[in-house]
């Protein structure tokens, strides 16, 4: 039995399409993470100072937690 190894180059444009799809996926993940942080900051900002103190936070911590 003879072993053959056929090495073909990728079809024209395949690598470009692959990079584009990966880039869009990366952008989607970053957008989702940004939106999650925005929602978290908004929810924490809506709490009163007493409620924030109950969970061990102060107003200055909100921006740090959202990152």
**Average residue-wise pLDDT:** 87
Strand content: under 5%
- Major sheet: none
How many helices?
3
Query: What structural category do the secondary elements indicate?
Result: mainly alpha
SSE pattern, N- to C-terminal: HHH
Termini separation (Å)? 60 Å
How would the global form be characterised? Answer: rod-shaped
- What would you report as the Rg, rounded to the nearest angstrom? 24 Å
Parts with pLDDT < 50 across at least 5 consecutive residues: none
Helix content: 55-70%
Number of strands: 0
Protein name: DUF1127 domain-containing protein
InterPro entries: YjiS-like
Domain YjiS-like: 29-63
Please give a quick description of this structure.
This protein is mainly alpha-helical and 67 residues long. It contains three helices and no strands.
Describe the structure.
This is DUF1127 domain-containing protein. By secondary structure, the chain is mostly helical. It has 3 helices and no strands. The protein is rod-shaped. The chain starts with 13 loop residues before the first helix and ends with a helix.
Give the topology, please.
Layout: H1 14-45, H2 49-54, H3 61-65
Protein name: DUF1127 domain-containing protein
Domain YjiS-like: 29-63
Pfam families: YjiS-like
Sum up the structure in keywords:
single chain, 67 residues, mainly alpha, 3 helices, rod-shaped
């Amino acid at each position: 039995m003879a072993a053959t190894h056929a090495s073909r180059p990728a079809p024209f444009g395949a690598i470009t399409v692959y990079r584009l799809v990966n880039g869009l996926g990366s952008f989607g993940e970053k957008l989702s993470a940004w939106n999650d942080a925005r929602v978290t900051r908004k929810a924490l900002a809506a709490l009163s100072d007493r409620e924030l103190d109950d969970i061990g936070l102060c107003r200055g911590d909100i921006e740090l937690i959202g990152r």
